[in-house]
Design a protein that fits this description.
2 copies of one chain form a homodimer. Chain A is of the alpha/beta class and about 525 residues long. The first copy, chain A, contains 16 helices and 26 strands. In chain A, the strands form 5 sheets. A 10-stranded mixed β-sheet of chain A has the order 1-10-9-6-2-3-4-5-25-26, sandwiched between helices. Chain A is globular, with a radius of gyration of 25 Å. Chains A and B meet through helix 1, helix 14, strand 25 and strand 26 of A and helix 1, helix 14, strand 25 and strand 26 of B.
């Protein structure tokens, strides 16, 4: 009889020989509600959660951006962290928006040393572009971030994940089935990956609902603590109602052409799959495709990505069989996620990771993407504006372009006085090799890497031009912009989805007021 | 410009200063169905999957038992592994049944060195009890196994997980929505945890369906390879049709008493939660509870565990709001999982892990369990028969008893010539500290640790006896069994859910034919 026997001695036959009844039932725990209150994960404050999470100087914290410009969670958590005197944090967010402007102070005060995100907007982006941070911001696509987390390159110490509802044990969702507070954002896609891999996971909600809050976006098994705060977000900033169709004639023309291109390209067959963006042209393309689906009597097997009410409508009409939703773009989409069984939320890793052949982006037949700039090598910029200031996000742009059989950029040839098709983009975000076709209001260009597509479009009678001719036409309309002047300082590092560096963003050069007058 | 800059240099300001455009687009991959066939996870044979998984001598492989006695997967995989000459494996299964008898040869041939499981039955169990293996079998509860996997104490190198349907990218399920082959087992609960944690995950199916096979029991993001084989199981062995109510008067009497005990114990209130076993008495208890629910006009918030058609019926009648299903016990349950939205499959970890306060077992108000033996300390044996031979499984017995506010054992006082309530159980599986009440056909005994319950039952007019009186009554009916004789050799180690050892099982002593005649 060997009281010191451990299961790890299992291969040691000598030890097993003398093994005998070792049971000591004294430490057995009986969970009885009648004797003691059942343990739950709800803590009394964000401060308590931060303490229990073990957050220390220099660690990495994470947030999701499903509340978009209505997010209260990140700012509230950061305020408490700052009050507690914790410093030198790396902040990894799925994206940052204008509402996160208070981060400027936390950066100045040394609370946040470094940022990783898909994008930045608003005053925070302005100041980063003007040299706010010592260490450059690392930009990752949604798939790239999920891959970095999954592979351990990006270690998340504590994830603070806002939810529209959560039970006392951590089953969390982006909508509520009980005690609805009116906060709804739909899919928790970007948060799901953080919940799976972060060392400690704190759900922040304003709505504790009864166990079991299932189906759940995040299961209790991935959650350590739950904190209830007064309000997690502003419904107005989280999402609008159903996204409306554009009436802009330029966008309608682009959309109709894009739909014709899709039909001509050989990927528009029964059981096809697709992803549409939220831009006016993308949504209008879906409407033109619907007419074609009805005419050809075909249906779509699944639509992927950011889901909109327009896509939901096609699903409810039986034209799209399943929806794989990493982010619900409007209220109709969020409601559908709650009510339609085959509208399923998927994690960022499931959606777009580059290290898994099963990533949903790889199953896409076609894809409509937008662009701030496209260059003659088909490289796309969705991150910096024509003034060199950061004002966008990589999102799933790189991931979907690489995954889809046919990736189409829809954009107007010019926006105001700015050319969209240029010689060289300010910032390379999505490599031209993964972009197949550019559809503008002034013509369609096919990537020379895809002569097969060019031939199909010509057979279908679609008028094709070259990317160089689009560039020249844009220049003839708005002239050449003066080159943006930058300093030597790097303020942003743009990574490709596999974690390699594909471009850097420099600090923009400042002029005093006089020099702006020339 | 520093071509050697790596993201891990991000905190090195000197390096960043000289950083510049590093992008080399040559290794960018475009996934174009028109150019190359899209990569998928389907391999041509089990052998190829085993090779690609990197399986080597001495590693640990895992299987689930959702096919029960109709499982072809484990035997087929083991045959290929044996043919390939791989040796000294540890086999971790969620459970083993009579159909897994061919493992005997693999053990004799050195292919399998060690087994971890919830239980063993049939000839394999007989031979293990008679000393087949050098190293004892480690028995773990479902929650204990999930905890061991989650915490890294049990490392799974390759999981071979059978599925009723799977798409080419790994979304797998226990039923089919497309190309139905007639194989259906419902929840993949025990397999879900293996898929999350095993180093390599191989889905074995006879039914490849179109992407995306969602909702999925196992998401593609957890899967490395998919192999199609001719047949994964025998529907007759996998499950029967709907489990029928018992007509056995002894069981009906036990069930009616159990229902009265539940009503009297203070846990039978609106929104209660429960878990019922599959035994005749358990199912009949559900029927008696239904009458009480209708009379009291209350509903159940969720039913947990192995789900049966009887529980499904209550769900479909609106009496149970949600079903959390780790294992579907019959065809009606499996069909319901496919068709009822609030019938959700949960992982073994979610169900029962001892290291997470959110484990579903902790939310149980009451629970009906069965027993082979109960002793005067309320310890329960569900693993070894009255002859000392292994013939059962821990299952979730330990987990649910520890988690539920009220855990009730229902059993006949005697089975044939064998007493159920005894002085000391052959094998301690579930510690008496976690068992509250024993309901037999000859009386009800309350654990002295729960005087509160005893009082409530007395107030309700339920006739209560003591465990010692039940033991004496059993002995007076069938006499005392002769003690089982064992050798010194340990053939099984019974762990408690936290991984500690709570008992050992010895090899039974053999007699030659003459000595059996006395």
């Amino acid at each position: 009889m060997d009281k010191n026997f451990k299961l790890s001695d299992i291969n040691n036959l000598d030890k097993i020989e003398s093994l005998n009844g070792l049971f000591d039932g004294n430490n057995v725990f009986k969970n009885s509600a009648n004797l003691v209150e059942k343990e739950c994960k709800v803590l009394s404050s964000l401060k308590e959660a931060i303490i229990k999470s073990g957050l220390k100087d220099g660690m990495t914290i994470s947030f999701h951006h499903h509340f978009r410009d209505g997010d209260f969670v990140l700012n509230k958590v950061m305020n408490v962290i700052a009050e507690m005197g914790i410093k030198n944090l790396t902040l990894s967010a799925s994206s940052l928006l204008a509402i996160h402007e208070p981060l400027i102070e936390h950066i100045k005060n040394g609370v946040v040393k470094r940022i990783e995100t898909s994008g930045v907007r608003g005053e925070l982006a302005e100041q980063i572009s003007r040299g706010l941070m010592d260490i450059p911001v690392v930009f990752r696509s949604h798939g790239g971030r999920a891959y970095a987390i999954h592979s351990g390159q990006l270690k998340l110490d504590v994830a603070f994940l806002g939810a529209a509802s959560c039970d006392p044990f951590g089953n969390a969702n982006g909508y509520s089935r009980d005690n609805d507070t009116g906060i709804i954002f739909g899919s928790m896609g970007y948060a799901k990956t953080d919940a799976q891999y972060a060392h400690k996971v704190v759900i922040v909600t304003d709505n504790i609902v009864p166990f079991p809050n299932v189906p759940a976006g995040i299961p209790q098994s991935d959650v350590d603590y739950v904190v209830k705060i007064d309000a997690v977000g502003d419904p107005k900033g989280i999402m609008s109602g159903a996204t409306r169709f554009t009436k802009n004639p330029k966008e309608l023309m682009i959309a109709e052409t894009a739909a014709d291109v899709i039909e001509a390209s050989g990927v528009f067959n029964d059981g096809f799959s697709m992803q549409m963006g939220t831009g006016g042209a993308s949504l209008a393309t879906a409407r033109f495709l619907k007419e074609k689906m009805l005419r050809k009597n075909i249906t779509c097997s699944f639509a992927l990505g950011g889901i909109t009410g327009q896509i939901v409508k096609l699903h409810e009409e039986g034209l799209i069989k399943k929806l794989l939703d990493v982010q619900s773009f409007d209220l109709d989409a969020a409601d559908s996620l709650k009510n339609n069984r085959f509208h399923q939320q998927i994690s960022a890793y499931y959606y777009a990771s580059p290290d898994n052949p099963g990533s949903a982006v790889n199953q896409l037949d076609f894809l409509i993407l937008s662009a701030l700039e496209v260059d003659v090598n088909f490289n796309v910029n969705v991150l910096t504006g024509s003034d060199g200031v950061i004002r966008g996000a990589i999102g799933g742009h790189q991931d979907t372009a690489a995954g889809a059989s046919l990736s189409i950029i829809t954009c107007p040839l010019t926006r105001g006085r700015i050319a969209t098709v240029v010689d060289k983009v300010n910032t390379i975000v999505t490599p031209g090799k993964t972009i197949d076709i550019i559809v503008t209001d002034q013509g369609v260009a096919v990537n020379p890497l895809r002569p097969d597509l060019k031939e199909k479009l010509e057979v279908a009678g679609i008028n094709i031009t070259t990317i160089e001719m689009l560039r020249d036409k844009a220049a003839s309309l708005v002239g050449h912009s003066l080159p943006i002047e930058y300093t030597e300082k790097v303020v942003g590092i743009v990574t490709y989805r596999d974690g390699s560096i594909i471009d850097v963003i420099h600090q923009i050069k400042e002029y005093d007021d006089e020099s702006l007058d020339f």
